[in-house]
Specification:
heterodimer, A: 409 residues, mainly alpha, 2 domains, 12 helices, disordered N terminus, B: mainly beta, 4-stranded mixed beta sheet, 3 helices, 12% helix
Chain lengths: 409, 238
Amino acid sequence: MSSPPNSTSVLPVPTPWLHRFALLTAITTFGLIGVGGLVTSHEAGMAVPDWPNTYGYNMFLFPISKWMGGIFYEHSHRLLASLVGLLTTVLAGWLWVRETRSRARWTGLGVMVLVLALMGVRRLPVYIGLASLSPIVIGISLWQIRRQPGTLRWWGIIAFAAVILQGVLGGLRVVLFKDQIGIFHATLAQLFFVLMCAICLFTSGWGQYTTQIPSGVRNLLLVTTLLVLGQLVLGATMRHQHAGLAIPDFPLAYGKLWPSMDAASVSQYNQLRQEVIAANPITRFQIGLQMVHRMIAGLICIAVAFCAWTMRRQLGAGHFLSKLALAWLGMILLQALLGAGTIWSNKAADIATAHVLVGALSLAAGVMTNIIAFRGSVLARAPQIAPITSGERSESFSPQAGAVLSGLK
Amino acid sequence: MKKTAALFTITSLVAGLQLASAGDISGTITLKGTPPPEKEITQVKEDPNCGKLHTEAVKTRFYVVGPKGELADVFVTLKGISGQSKGAETPPVVLDQKGCEYVPYIFALQTGQKLLVKNSDPVLHNIHPTPAAAGNKEENKAQMPGGPELTFTYPTPEIFLRFKCDVHPWMFSYACVTDHPFGAVTDKDGKYTLKDVKDGKYTLEVYHRKAAPATAPVTKEIEVKGGNLTEDFTLEVK
């Protein structure tokens, strides 16, 4: 494979500052997910009726005296989202600059500035246009990553495109009144956080850490992580029905192992509940959804426990991945407890939001474990280099490894 | 002159016949059983702006019951009548925001009739109707304290069309939209009146948010025959 024009032949070592900045972006993203969780938990998503303005004001000039009730959560979410957008843009630019030279460098930066300028136009068609381009850009970036797996700049471009898509989706949820957009917005938020965590991993010393894992264990990790992702999508779907708790008790469901879901029973459930806030009526679909969510939660607990046990048995208790899998199991058990707590507290906003946050951490932990586990097999397929094995963790990015991986040498 | 007198007589007779062929349907709705105690809306007192508008705890309004079981906020209407709305020429219905609550909680509205939403509070609200029937438009409008009244109209009948405020998520109320003028909400004495119903056989429908929801109204076959009709109902606590 030949070297792409205007790119460096040997990838530079990520600086500690780049890693720290990626970490800052990931932590801010985590905070943003928390505030987003509070918005939905407080049913405040529509508390600001306009977008991108806030009650007719430029978002950044909205008087603090008017941040009342649900506006506080929604407006804070918008401001924090803007900060994440800014941090992501700087991170993407940084990653791009460190791996490109001359024309490619300036073209890339120019496009980013142009996109930011277009965002500044603040017109719905422009936002929709940019959001529509985002999946294409993400697709191209993934193709480039597949072609040059050692590079980081395309991960930055994915983050840049995703943050634009995510911001526009959040705005469209408000102006188009579509709950479905909210589900997609919530899911993309989780994926974006995982992407940020991955960039943190890649820019750290752990970015080159590899270990040989049997393929069966790797596949188990992958399936379990996909299960966690599916569970988060289900959770987002439940939350964005805006119907409160479809089933108010746990571990039973309406006093039974499996609740009655015929029309008369559902009608009676609605008659018996006393909604303090404007919750939508519960439906058969929502009851079924929560039952599936409960069952998958149980399945995930078993699967992650099995992952932890298998890795401990095959890699040893002292192996880094065994410890990571154990921590993952701890998160999953905490998450299950928070899920039960959400029901027992009648969906208290803080507990429901903590459930969202630990869900995000659980997915990130699963994906990071997968990256480390699968990285060994990727490197093993590159005959030019020997993978860095357990106990030989490189404390810095290896230019040689990076160059070989990217096919540039 | 004789012709004019004859014409006058005929007109009077026809008018008299028309009056005789219509009547009012009225009655009282009572509740049987003890409803669950209303929940305190703690968010109101926790809100620094809305909390100071109340001296007493604000509670939910699911069962507003009088001493003898008279049930308020019950919507009574006639089933299966369409295209008879007089909404365009009927005075608007007013929905007020007072003490960070909607007043009234349940109200009748005809298709095409104006709904004026006003804000009597010293705090801003957003008015967010969330209709389910096709043709009724979901909107979300801001209303500043003392701001101008907002107008909403709906073309499609819909029982319990919800209005809510997302700034104060405990605020919600419901419009019962009909395609005719024969809809009424019971007052605090549980009384309702449907005026000027023409002679004929009808199905009377009774809706209550909890005791007779939109999916399962209480119904009764009735016949109006040249006079007023009294129809009382008893709803049961579920």
